[in-house]
Write a structure and sequence with these properties.
The complex is a heterodimer of chains A (112) and B (114). Chain A has no helices and eleven strands. Chain A has 112 residues and is an all-beta fold. In chain A, the strands form two sheets. In chain A, strands 2, 4, 5, 9, 10 and 11 form a six-stranded mixed beta sheet that branches. In chain A, strands 1-3-8-7-6 form a five-stranded antiparallel beta sheet, with no helix packed on it. By secondary structure, chain B is mainly β. Chain B has no helices and eleven strands. Chain B starts with a strand and ends with a strand. The chains are: A mainly beta (112), B mainly beta (114).
C-alpha cells in the first residue's frame, strides 16, 4: 500500500519555464511534507517542506503547495534551470513518529 | 566536511555471506535511520534510532541487525545475504530542533549480492 504517490515518473521542461511536480497521499495523519532532490550516485538532499497548518511555503525559486482536502501537494520551480535536472522525491510524516514515507520519485529534465 | 558518511560506497559479495555497512554523522543529531532503495527506486525506511534506542523496525528480516554504539553512529549488519538484498542502502540523520524533521542523507552504499 503506497501511501505517498508520485504518478509522473518523468517530466521534461524548457529552461526558464515552470516545473510542476505532483504528489498525492492517502494517510490523513500525515502532518508534515518534504521534498528532496537526488542526483545520481548521491543521497537525497532536502529542498523544502510544509506543515499541514499551511497551504504554501516558498523558498527562492521553489514553492510547495498543499491541498489537504485533496491530499495533494505540488512543487513549483520557477524559473527552471538545467542544474535542477534530478529525481525529486516527496515524503510525508506524522510528527513525532520518526517515520517518513517516500514517493517513488519524478525525474525532472530541464532542457537548455 | 561530510555531514553523513557511509562506508563502503560499493559492496559486492556472494550469497550467504555476512557483511556490515557503517554510518557516521557529525551533525550532532540524535536520530538516525537506514533506508533501502530497491530496483524499482522505492525508498523505504528500515530502521530508526533515537538516542541510541530503536524506535522503528519496519518488517525487516531478522538477518538485518542495526547497531548504534553511540549517537553519531548507526551500523547495519546483514547475515546470510540473499539476492533480494541487492539494493542501495542510505543512512540518514535528523534532529527535531533543526529545520523541523529535515533529514540529511549519506551518499548511499550499493550492495550487489551474486
Amino acid at each position: 500500500d503506497q501511501q505517498v504517490k508520485q504518478n509522473s515518473p518523468s517530466l521534461s521542461v524548457q529552461e526558464g519555464r515552470i516545473s510542476i511536480l505532483n504528489c498525492d497521499y492517502t494517510n490523513s495523519m500525515f502532518d508534515y511534507f518534504l521534498w528532496y532532490k537526488k542526483y545520481p550516485a548521491e543521497g537525497p538532499t532536502f529542498l523544502i517542506s510544509i506543515s499541514s497548518i499551511k497551504d504554501k511555503n516558498e523558498d527562492g525559486r521553489f514553492t510547495v503547495f498543499l491541498n489537504k482536502s485533496a491530499k495533494h501537494l505540488s512543487l513549483h520551480i520557477v524559473p527552471s534551470q538545467p542544474g535542477d535536472s534530478a529525481v525529486y522525491f516527496c515524503a510525508a510524516t506524522t510528527s513525532g513518529t520518526y517515520k517518513y514515507i517516500f514517493g517513488t520519485g519524478t525525474r525532472l529534465k530541464v532542457l537548455a | 566536511d561530510t555531514a553523513v558518511s557511509q562506508t563502503p560506497k560499493y559492496l559486492v559479495t556472494q550469497m550467504g555471506n555476512d557483511k556490515s555497512i557503517k554510518c557516521e554523522q557529525n551533525l550532532g543529531h540524535d536520530t538516525m535511520y537506514w533506508y533501502k532503495q530497491d530496483s524499482k527506486k522505492f525508498l523505504k525506511i528500515m530502521f530508526s534510532y533515537n538516542n541510541k534506542e530503536l524506535i522503528i523496525n519496519e518488517t525487516v528480516p531478522n538477518r538485518f541487525s542495526p547497531k548504534s554504539p553511540d549517537k553519531a553512529h548507526l551500523n547495519l549488519h546483514i547475515n546470510s545475504l540473499e539476492l533480494g538484498d541487492s539494493a542501495v542502502y542510505f543512512c540518514a540523520s535528523s534532529a527535531k530542533l533543526q529545520r523541523d524533521w529535515e533529514q540529511f542523507f549519506g551518499p548511499g552504499t550499493r550492495l550487489t549480492v551474486l
